Amino acid sequence: MPKQAIIPPGSGVPLAPFVPGTLADGVVYVSGTLPFDKENNVVHVGDAAAQTRHVLEIIKSVIETAGGTMDDVTFNSIFITDWANYAAVNQVYAGYFPGDKPARFCIQCGLVKPDALIEIATIAHIGTP
User: Fold this and answer.
1) PROSITE patterns annotated for this entry (predicted)?
2) Any idea what the Cα angle at residue 91 is, between residues 94 and 55, rounded to 5°?
3) Domain limits, the chain
4) Could you list the mean pLDDT of each consecutive 10-residue stretch along the chain, which spans 129 residues?
5) Sheet of 21-24, strand order
6) Strands (E), 49-117
7) pTM for the whole thing?
8) Is 3-125 assigned to CATH 3.40.1000.10?
9) pLDDT at 14
């Protein structure tokens, strides 16, 4: 099974040895995505809704670079640092998935940078591009 690295134009250099996404057999695996700018600085500090929007826009760019759309998303793994942000995250999240919702889970945990409030990893089935 050949695989292809998916790196949207303008992507920054990751903090660790990974790529933003991998395409294999019509499935896009999007790495855990944090609310980082191209220099790996946290954006929208203290604003869970804005961080969620930023993360989902990065995920969208990875999926679109691979030839898919957000409608192709089948699963999301969501990591938040505080349950107090759960409603804000869900409000933004619902806007990106207005139709049939993907399966998902959400857990509270610590993230790689203290100002990051959310991280999302995604799987999308785009078929053969």
Assistant:
1) UPF0076
2) 75
3) 3-125
4) 90 89 97 95 97 98 97 98 98 97 98 97 87
5) 3-6, 21-24, 27-33, 118-125, 73-80, 103-108
6) 73-80, 103-108
7) 0.96
8) no
9) 86
